[in-house]
Design brief:
This protein is an alpha/beta fold. It is about 40% helix and about 15% strand. Strands 3-2-1-4-5-6-7 form a seven-stranded parallel β-sheet, sandwiched between helices. Helix 1 packs parallel to helix 2, helix 1 packs across helix 6 and helix 4 packs parallel to helix 5.
Length: about 240
């Protein structure tokens, strides 16, 4: 089956930015969608919404993708993946001096191992096609340090380093690898924060950007993209 008709896998796809990405793919493309997250009830709700938005087919996978053992059990062959979006992650707003070792490890495991584990499992299927695309959702915290979220910043630096290395490894294949270094983007995690949502990135813009990456010719790749709020960083940051 061709790249244009292959499915898009979205991790963290049951809510927040991941669900917004899924919405854009459902509305603007004819690709089957595969949503990956932990909570079955959230996945079922997200599946229903994606079908209402126009997705031709939606599969859901409930799994802890930070666990290599759990991810290795998933059979992606029948899902026909062509696009993998590693979006899943968690954010910790806490200074390093107050961060426990357990919290530090959790940030690294959930934000970094998740992308590594799923990519390693899906990659053999991507290599079977005439082309493929891997998009890793990185962050402005991949590019510079933040004093109030050091553990998160560490993990996002690691994800960008992983992405750059993966890009080098796959450069002579037909699989493009892109990083999106994302600024503050509106999601449910901002609901308890006193901030104007209109000053943050519209999460559906992330989806629109990724859809455009799937439409590039096979000889082109956007290696790294910075997406920011038009007015710059918004407090608190």
């Amino acid at each position: 089956m061709s790249f244009e008709r292959s499915s898009v896998i979205i991790t963290g796809g049951s809510k927040g930015i991941g669900l917004s990405i899924a919405k854009v793919f459902a509305e603007k493309t004819n690709r089957p969608i595969v949503l990956v997250a932990r909570t079955v009830s959230d996945l079922e709700n997200a599946k229903k919404q994606c079908l209402e938005w126009g997705a031709p087919k939606v599969d859901i996978i409930s799994v802890d993708i930070s666990s290599e053992k759990e991810v290795s059990r998933i059979d992606f062959e029948g899902l026909n993946p062509g696009v993998l979006i590693n979006n899943a992650g968690v954010f910790l707003f806490k200074p390093l001096s107050e961060t426990s070792g357990e919290e530090f490890e959790r940030q690294y495991k959930l934000n970094t191992f998740s992308a590594f584990n799923l990519t390693k499992t899906v990659l053999p299927e991507l290599k079977k096609k005439e082309r493929g695309l891997i998009v890793n959702i990185c962050s402005q915290a991949s590019l510079k340090g933040y004093g109030d979220s050091g553990a998160y910043t560490m993990s996002k630096h690691a994800v960008l380093g992983y992405t750059r290395s993966l890009r080098k490894e796959l450069m002579q294949t037909k699989i493009a690898v892109s990083a999106i270094n994302l600024g503050q983007t509106y999601s449910t995690s901002w609901k308890e924060v006193d901030v104007d949502p209109d000053k943050l990135i519209d999460p559906e813009d992330v989806g629109r950007l990724i859809v455009s990456l799937t439409e590039l010719s096979p000889q082109s790749v956007a290696e790294e993209i910075i997406l920011m709020p038009q007015g710059g960083e918004v407090n608190p940051m």
